[in-house]
Each structure stands twice: as C-alpha cells, then as structure tokens.
C-alpha cells in the first residue's frame, strides 16, 4: 500500500508552486515547466503519485533558504498538541476530582454526575460524529474554511504570527493566506485538520475525567446516592440505568455493571432523613456503573473519532492534492512538452497578480480516484480560425504533444468533444475579449468537470503560413479581463 501524502506535503507543494509562479513572471511558464520536468526525468513510466512525490523530494533537497512551511507546521502542531493535552487533562481531571469531594455528610449525587460528565460528553461526541456519518458539507456559497474557523480565529492566527521574526512572519502570513484562498480545494483537509485537534482535546478530557474518578475510588471513601424532588420510584431509575448500561452490562456479573433494584432503592437520599439509615454497600454500588459510563460514552467514542479524523486527514490530503487543478497542470508538464509562453517586462506586477487570482481552485470531487492526464491535447479552435489555417495541427505540434483539432462555433452553445485530456482554447489576442466571448468561455468551463483545468492559448494574427506571437498590450488586456472572471482552473498561456 502506497504511503499517502501528509499535510506537511500539501504545505510544501503550495510553497513550491508559489515559487514557480514568481519565477514564471520573468522566465515564463515554459522554462519553469522544463525545470520541473527534469526533476522527474527518471520516472517516465511511473504513476502520477510517484512523479509528484519524486518532484517534491527533489525540491526539498534543493531548498537552501531555511525551514520549509511543512517543517514549521510540524513544529507548531507539536506545540499545539502539548498545549491541548495539558489543558484537557487538567480540566477533565480537576473537574471530576473536585466534584467527587466527599465530606461524609452527603453522598455524591449520581444523577447530577451522570448528566454533567457522561450524558453531555456522549451528546457532544454524537454531534461530532454527525459530519462524518452524513458527510455534512458547508453550502457552496460559503468557504468551508470560513465555516469551520471563522473570521475571529483567522485574525487571531495572523496576530500570533507577529511574534515571529520579520522573515518568518512574511513567509508564514503568505502561506496562511494562500491556504485560505485555496480553502475550497482543500476544504475536507482543513475540516479534518481542525476536527482532529478537537478530538485530541475531547479524548484527553475524557481520559482525565476517568483517571480522576478511579483515583477517588481507589484512594478515598466515596459514597454515591440519588435524589430528586419528583416522585420517582426506584423502579424507574433502575430501568433507566439498565438501558444506559446495555453496552456493557451483558459482560459483567449481575449487580456490577448496573446496580440492582435493591441497591437503587437503598441509595435513595431523602433530605430530611440524611444518610444515617443508608447501607454503605448500596452507596458504593454505583461506582462501576459510572466508571463504565465514563469509558463507553466519554472516552471510547472520542478515541474512535480521533482515529477516524487521523485516517480521514491522510486520505483527504492525498485525494485533494492529486485532484487539485494546479497539481494537474504540474503533472501534465511532466509528461508532455509545455506550451511555449512569453512574459514581457512591462506590466509584470499586474500580470502576476492577475495570474495568481486567475488560478483559484474549487473543491475536487471526493471520489478517491485521481484522474490521469491523457496524452492527447484537445484544441478548441473557432471555426473561422480553423478555416484560415489549414495546417494548424502542424503549427501546434511544435509547442504541445498530440494536438487534436476540434473546430467550434462561438455563436452557439459550446460543443465539447468526448475527451478526458487537456483542453486548450485558441484565441487571437488582438481581438478584444468582448462579453459574448467571455460568456462562451464561462459556459465552456461550466461544462467541464469541476477539477479539470482549461487553458486559453493566446496568439497573434493567424495566417495560413504561420501563427504569430501576440503583442504584450493585447495579452495584458486578456489577463486582466479573464482574471476578473475568477474561474477555477482557468489558465492563460501565450504563444512565444
């Protein structure tokens, strides 16, 4: 079984792809793609996961400017875990230990203890399990990141970064904001990341509560009784206790897993009578029931949820990395020649910002089957351009692998061919992106699978003999307009 990606791998991939974006501002995407292709040159026959892992390992070995975000996250996660463990154990142990303080005058009320430390824990554990059982997701109009952590926690984390050095603060803030920007693509990963920390706290709280209870039983003489203002018969309390004890009473001797009816009746406290007439055996008969309740309804479900959160986090990271549109583009660059791109010096800052905005992502389908990029590139060409350039496939074969030309009419609804490979749309940059053209591109992107990237290849004026590179002013207009669409997985390439 292959080793799944970890959250540290996700953060480092985000970091390195951000570095690639910055380098592409000056060198162009073709140069960056070629450098990445060399890193996995020896894995031509490997699968996508092996290539991505090899690329990540090579980039980590080449990193020389300090600790990577993945390592920083590991250190921060360790500190956070210790803080959560201390707070949870202290709260759980201290709360139960102080509640069980027995002066010899009045026994511990079983009903109050059950509600505070068993029933509430069980209900909270059930509520935590609902998102896993029913796969509850946030509305599509809301970011899962915002639903889970909220604006207040985000601001708190950014303020916490101010304690770092200037260099580390800039890097950490940049990574955090990129992670928030990609929260739809990694919504399940972020959910499990926070969910697992909640389960760590709850599990250790339950462990601390159980440890305090056993400490009181072993080293102190503690009595348990029940009382209520309502005219409740002991038979009713015994019946309720028997129902609660169903998960464990079958495996324990009679009268141990749940108090007998006689013990229940003998441990009932009446305010005006005190406890002088109550039997010590009856008052001590409740502790096995309460101990098993703490374990079965408090500790056990939280431990199972903690295991589920750890497994779910690993699977979510692996699936969402492999289905991430930017990872798909990276994987495509490993197996096929990249489109030739050109970045001019003018408008570099504006174009870079537009390019980063343009490469927003969405939540990939959580089907556990990473799609494999096909070798064939489907090239959508407006009908008038296809008629104007008969040898279009020959021209494009110089900059991409196995182009399959598919003429389309941009005056009707997009006619998408049956393909699972790369989709490239040819556009002459000198023709301004009017509203009709942009609406057609939006319809085309809507028809594609949500995780499938779409590349717009900008050219200059096309003739029967050649395809000319576009002018930088025209490219600049296209980048700004398409960036404003904020379509997920949309990528602009320039014929160079």
UniProtKB/TrEMBL annotation:
Transmembrane segments: 68-91, 111-134, 190-214, 286-305
InterPro entries in the cross-refs: DUF2868
Source organism, top-level taxon: Bacteria
One Pfam family cited in the UniProt record for this chain: DUF2868
The UniProt record lists the keyword S-adenosyl-L-methionine: no
Keywords in alphabetical order: Membrane, Transmembrane, Transmembrane helix
Stated name of the protein: DUF2868 domain-containing protein
Species the sequence originates in: Desulfoluna limicola
